[in-house]
Amino acid sequence: MSLHSSSEYVKIFKFVHSPTSPSYPNLLQSAQQNPRWLNLNSTSFKKPRFVITPYTTSEVQAAIICSREHGLQIRIKSGGHDYEGLSYLCKSPFIILDLINIRSIAVDLEEENAWVQSGATLGELYYSIAQESKVLGFPGGLCPSVGVGGHFSGGGIGTMVRKYGLAADNVLDAYIIDAKGTILDRKSMGENLFWAIRGGGGASFGVIIAWKVKLVRVPSLVTVFTLHTNLDKKTSKLVQKWQSIASKQPEELFIRTIIQKVNNETVVVLFNSLFLGPVNKLIPLMSKSFPELDLRAQDCISMSWIESVLYFTGFKKEDPLEVLLDRTVQYKSNFKAKSDFVRKPIPESALEEIQKRLLEEEELAMLIMEPFGGKMDLIQETKLPFPHRKGYLFNIQYLVKWSGEGETEAKKHLKWINGVYKYMKPYVSSSPRAAYINYRDLDLGINEEQNTSYSQAMLWGRKYFKGNFKRLARVKTRVDPGNFFRSEQSIPLFLHC
């Protein structure tokens, strides 16, 4: 690339950061949710040749084309929440394309939609919507520092999933830049590629620059509550009842259950809920369907939808909405997560064993269970790559966090979560045992070589996508036949299978 003037030199190096740049170390660490991957001096991973922070689509195109010409792989980062670090780690020479400066949001109240660029966070999107309307929202995830680029392209589960489905179910259009550097919208990319990027993991197909999303109607006031109690035989029966009824409630009601160790002797259960309606409608509903919980009006809080976003994040009702604009990851710590989907209630005996195992873990450990049903039962599993729809009662996220450093410390906690995951096998979905791509888990299998076969990738592909995996591989082969956009769990080419 030639430099024709000093001003062009300044412009280029404004968004190209080399290892000698003062900004390089901070960019590597900013917004990376999982510090256990931050040891980039590890012999397993290389440091990126450059971190690119483009401001325009033409700069993204240049980064793609230059990377191809120089044999560099590319990692695409919007928020940095990739559980296994694939948005900023690589074993081959590579660059990081950090979309932090491509984050504009335009809300159209008349059409009730919005264009949001991939580098924006969920918090920035929610804040922008709330600034324009008190009766519109968006059904995305709970963590405001998550980038929309990764969240949408993996599906996107949130508190309104039973009413409006996944975030990806509400995407209307998108702009993607392919391996040739060509910008495509929904019409020019075609329905197969548009289908693939809404739940199939967008980084396998190109760089998604922006998304057009449908906004959804929310009441001016919603109701939230959190009830918690120590896990004992009585509480186990509550969890048992929750498993049977949570997915069958009116679609306006979302009640998730969190089973969590709080100290060396205590495991608690939290029933954490959003109801898209007033308290005086929620109480009779709960009294009829879940009287054992004994929910009372004084347990509930009325607030706006945007205040409920703060509530589920852990902020206080009186906190300013501007906290949603903070891209800093809260509660950053080393962690490992795994996932499951459940078709029939887990027996009480298994819950008792889970309690025992939680107490055996020395640091923070939990199971987060989120109900499906409602809208999710009405969407066919082939509608989008995300197939876990009708018949699933809830999903589980297993999570362990620890403060210590080093490989020995990490192995101890990884052994614990792997043991829990193995124990749960008889009680969760099977053939395949399903998993959620946004809770990415490299234990399910990886692509070791550039042209990993479709059959080898089936180890993890069927768990994330079930029968949709073959279609994803066919789309990949058509739009990126050179397999330029690849990682340890990218969609493979449909070859030699």
UniProtKB/TrEMBL annotation:
Its cofactor is FAD. This is FAD-binding PCMH-type domain-containing protein. Residues 43-218 form the FAD-binding PCMH-type domain. It comes from Penstemon davidsonii. Keywords: Alkaloid metabolism, FAD, Flavoprotein, Glycoprotein, Oxidoreductase, Signal. It comes from the Eukaryota. It holds the Pfam family BBE. Pathway: Alkaloid biosynthesis. The keyword Ribosomal protein does not apply. Belongs to the oxygen-dependent FAD-linked oxidoreductase family. InterPro entries: BBE, FAD-bd_PCMH, FAD-bd_PCMH-like_sf, FAD-bd_PCMH_sub1, FAD-bd_PCMH_sub2, Oxid_FAD_bind_N, Oxy_OxRdtase_FAD_BS. SUPFAM superfamilies: FAD-binding/transporter-associated domain-like.
